[in-house]
Amino acid sequence: MTYRLRVTLLAAAAVAVAVVAAAALMYVVVRRQLVDQVDTTMQSTAQVAQELAERALRGPGPFFRFSSSVSGNANIPGQLVTASGTIARADYGPVSPIVTNEVKQVASGDRASFTGDVYVTGTDGHTYHVRVYAVPLGSGQALELWQLMDAVDATLDRLRDILIAVAAGGVALAALLGFLVARAVLAPVKRLTGAVEEVARTRDLSQRIGASGKDELARLARSFDGMLAALEMSLRQQRQLVADASHELRTPLTSLRTNLELLARGQPTDPEERQQLLGDLVAQMERLSTLVADLIDLARDEEMPFPVEDLRLDEIASTAVDEVRMRYPAVAFRSELRPVTIRGVRPRVMRAVTNLLDNAAKWSPAGSAVEVSVAGSEIVVRDHGPGISPEDAAHVFDRFWRAPSARQLPGSGLGLSIVKQVAEAHGGSVTLERPNDGGARFRLKLLSAPH
Ligand SMILES: Nc1ncnc2c1ncn2[C@@H]1O[C@H](COP(=O)(O)OP(=O)(O)O)[C@@H](O)[C@H]1O
Ligand SMILES: [Mg+2]
Q1: CB burial of residue 100 (10 Å; 0-12, 13-18, 19+)
Q2: For 349-403, what is each residue's pLDDT tens digit?
Q3: Which residues' Cβ are closer than 6 Å to ligand 1?
Q4: Ligand 1, atom 1: closest residue by C-alpha
Q5: Percent of the chain topping pLDDT 70
Q6: Topology annotation, domain 216-298
Q7: Superfamily covering domain 304-445
Q8: Ligand 2 mean position to 415 CA, how many Å?
Q9: Which fold does the domain 3-155 belong to in CATH?
Q10: What is the pLDDT of residues 119-130, one digit of tens each?
Q11: Could you give the strand order of the β-sheet that contains 332-337, starting from the edge strand earlier in sequence?
């Protein structure tokens, strides 16, 4: 069953219940009132008759118009009935004498009174609905009054027809409104579904639903657009990384292959040159391993398989300095580390800090200093090397980018992009500053742990 049909049926059912209940109640109340009116009239007539019973019974003449003579109401015919059912005196309308068992019981004193509906066939052959009221009168007799109910019944029948028509109209209107409302409400859902299906079918993440408005569905559409944009971005980045990586891997692989082919052909013959070539090969292999390791590090970014914890940035810096110092014994590290606690993933932050220190050491002339300071949730690494020109500064954080002058030195061009990625994944940032007195200064800002 479609959602639209369900809404339509629900609206119709809700209105049907309400309308039918109201109509039924109205019908019952009106009928009760009309019948009560008839009963009350007969009761007051009978009451007057009862009070004048003596005189009425002893007096001469027929009972004809008895009830109307005492009540002044000519429309209420009546008769006097004995316990055996004999009619003592009568005052007939169009209806034949009615003597039910209940009326006889009233006459014999077994019943206090009787009010009820009786259906009788009149002298004209018609079946009449008659309201009967009987009370004891005198000894062993009952005064029975009645009223024809055809006017009341006709009124009630008309009322019933009107109510049925109104209820049916109400239900139909509710169903129509439910249908229209459901259609209006579901139109954006339908569009959304269409767009989602289109994306699933074509796998084209560049599509957008482009909803306007402030309602819930517009919000849903916008979050869907947001999700598409994020997916598209991530997919594009991944494709770019794969493209860049395969390009970058090809160069060292080609040179490895050339050198290996040389060796395979038994060249060079000179043992010293041969030794040199083997040394080159090892260096190229190492470069390749670094590149692959960096690539894996870069690609792993989104996963974050390690826990986010409170980290002492100063301790990480001092561990990293110790490690880099071993690789670059000629560089003097000067650390000024204040105790700082940040939120982060230990191996990732460690990697970022090491990359900054490695670069600083790599570009430091022998004997010069690298200054490391930790304070206020950031670490600053400064060297006194050649520095970075303003044109290059725009690219240093790009993947695989290396300054032309850096091509001779080992490296993959991925170090700073890893630093940037780590910084952003941690809600921080990394910036390059160019001190007036030369060298480069990198500032890695992270989020401090809440106290
Ligand atoms: N401290 C620095 N001093 C001068 N140049 C730097 C420094 N750090 C980075 N660079 C420049 O930025 C480039 C990118 O650095 P990085 O991403 O770490 O790659 P890699 O170190 O593998 O070359 C380097 O090749 C270099 O040209
Ligand atoms: Mg580097």
Answers
A1: middle
A2: 999 999 999 999 999 998 999 999 999 999 999 999 999 999 999 999 998 888 8
A3: 355, 359-360, 363, 383, 385-388, 396, 401-403, 406, 411-417, 440
A4: 360
A5: 91
A6: Helix Hairpins (1.10.287)
A7: Histidine kinase-like ATPase, C-terminal domain (3.30.565.10)
A8: 4
A9: Beta-Lactamase (3.30.450)
A10: 988 778 888 899
A11: 332-337, 369-375, 378-382, 441-445, 429-433
